Amino acid sequence: MLKAEEYNNKGIHFIQTSQIDQALKYFEKSIEEDKFYTDPYYNKAIAHLTMEDFDSALKCYNNILEIDPSQGEAYYQKANILFFIKDDLDEALNLYNKAIFLGVKNSNLFNNLSLCQQKKGNLEQAIMWNERALRIEPEKVDFLNKRAELFIKSGKLREALDIYNSVLMIDVSNEEANHFKAVILGEIGDFDEALKSLEFSEEMLPESILIKYDKVLIYERQGEFNKALEYIAECEKVDSSNLQILNKKAELYFSINNEEKALEVYDEIIKMYPDNFEAYFNKANGLMIVKKYKEANELYNYILDNAEDKNPYKINSYYYSALSLRSLGDSNYIDVYKNAIKQYSNLMLYYEYDPTIYMLKANSYRDIDKYTEAEEIYEFAIDLSPNSAEIYLMRAKNRIKLNNMTLAKKDIEKAIDINPYYNKILQADEELKMCFR
């Protein structure tokens, strides 16, 4: 045993000096000296993990458990690989529980068990195990932030807000807590308190683009679009090429009816990111708004010709290419709609339950006056996604064509109930307003 320990200690030294091959050599020597000595197996696993050789690490933990099935630590470490690397959630949960049964009760195990339960969608179990982790380390900020996140997912915004306030008492400059505190205050409509919180956060984190962007979103929620644009400029001082910031900048210009500026922003994005099909698609939609249908059609076709088949903007462009031709008055638009219907039928073989594809197919039928066929497809799309305001609004347009104003009105009201923003769309759409006359 003394020789085995000596070799094991030499191996540890080489791990500490990042000489992994040498470390493995001495761990092997230790195992050859005493194959029932488990320490070198643990250390050999660490060496393999350092090289991201996860299968070899798993073999080491299996070797330990063959020698001594009561080694809870081996179950715990094996579970970590199965969860974080192999994504085998059920077996990871099984092994975490075995480790606990065998006496491993550290905070990280409980936290990992919580994360695993969350990934499986078991929020109550995730909250319970997170609480167990916090009993051991009640002021560990990562665990507290995770607890707040779980409360948000459970719809317990006030409880989450209390936790973020607790985090900020421990670490006043914690970016995650500062960010989500403002998000929650915005969600519950306390915009003044959200802005006050962000002012303080900005003092603590002056270079945080996330905190500056939170201000953009709060001002946008309040309808103060010019103020939001001022903070977009502040964000750009930190990162002038941030795609999310640039996309929001374009959206805000559209909100103040400055379509020219919005389109310039999309040109800027395309110049920076020539393979970003979202920018081409958004620019095409902007061109539709200003009734430049020919230019819009060219961009939709560019996406269709160059994007991969599974790209969501290509999938959307089958419909919008036809719509732009129809808006242009091009006589070929019916053939393009028929091709869109064919493409969506093919895509349904791969994305059998994607509500967006069903909606786009229904839209295509509606736009070539096949309202009965469209109605059936809209119904299934809504069954798949009952909280999609957009699908209700699209079906309302179809029901207007069917002269069923009562059901169309119900769909519009449902859309607005889900997302009040759609009331703005209603006010700008003469066809939809017909239902309320």
Folded structure, characterized:
The mean pLDDT is 95. The chain starts with a helix and ends with a helix. It has helices spanning 2-16, 20-33, 39-50, 54-67, 72-84, 89-101, 107-119, 123-136, 141-153, 157-170, 175-187, 191-204, 209-221, 225-238, 243-255, 259-272, 277-289, 293-306, 312-328, 333-350, 355-367, 371-384, 389-401, 405-418, 422-428, 430-433. Among the domains are: 1-104, Alpha Horseshoe (Serine Threonine Protein Phosphatase 5, Tetratricopeptide repeat), CATH 1.25.40.10; 353-436, Serine Threonine Protein Phosphatase 5, Tetratricopeptide repeat, CATH 1.25.40. By secondary structure, the protein is mainly alpha-helical. Helix content is 78%, strand content 0%. α21 packs parallel to α23 (389-401). This is Tetratricopeptide repeat protein. TPR repeats lie at residues 4-37, 38-71, 107-140, 243-276, 355-388. Pfam families: TPR_1 (PF00515), TPR_16 (PF13432), TPR_8 (PF13181). InterPro entries: TPR-like_helical_dom_sf, TPR_rpt, Ycf3. Keywords: Repeat, TPR repeat.
Unreliable spans are none
Q: What is the correct CATH architecture of the domain at 1-104?
A: Alpha Horseshoe
CATH class of the domain at 1-104: Mainly Alpha
The N- and C-terminal alpha carbons lie at a distance of 92 Å
Shape: elongated
Order of helices and strands: HHHHHHHHHHHHHHHHHHHHHHHHHH
How much helical structure, as a percent, in the residues?
over 70%
Write down the oligomeric state.
single chain
* CA-atom Rg in angstroms: 29 Å
Class based on secondary structure composition and strand pairing: mainly alpha
Query: How many DSSP H or I helices?
Result: 26
